[in-house]
Predict the structure.
Amino acid sequence: MTTIKPIQLELNTAQQQAEYFFNREFNAVDLHLLGNPFEDYEICFPSDEVLINEMFEDGYYLDYEEQKTEFIEEYGEFDQDDFNEHISELREFQEFKDNIEHFPMWSTVWSCDRFYIDSDYCNIDKLYELGIGVLETEDKYYLFICGCGYSFYNQHWIPLFKMLNWIEEETETTT
C-alpha cells in the first residue's frame, strides 16, 4: 500500500485566502451558454429597501428629510416600512430603479449555491451592497460583477469572504 503525502496549503494573505475560497465555491460559466436574457435567465435586483437607501444616499432623485417630513404630515407618524412602501410607489423611485446599471459587465458569470442567495449569512441584498449581482435561471443561480478595470478580489471577493467570516484579519498585539 502506498502512503500519500498530504498537501499543506499556506494561505497567509487575504488575497490568497479569497482566491482559494473563490476557486472552491464558484465555477465560471460563459453568459452566452445561459441563453437569452429575460427568456432563459433573469437579473435579480435587491429589495426596494436597499434601493431606496441607495437612492437617498445618491441624493439625485429625492431628499430624504423632505420626503420624511411630507410623509409625517400626510400620515401623522413615521413608520419605516410604510415609508419605504410609499417611496417605492413614487415615479422618482421607479426612474431611479430603471436607470440602475446592474448587469454583467463581462460574459463570465459564476455558478453558486443557494447559500449565497438566501441564507442567514448571505443574500441578494448583501451581495448587491458588495457590488455582486445575481442571475437566476430555472434551476440555478449565478453571480456576476458589474464593473471593470480594478481588482475584483479587493473590491468584491475579499469583502464577501470577510462578511462570511471566512477571512479573518489578525489584530496586532503589543507587549
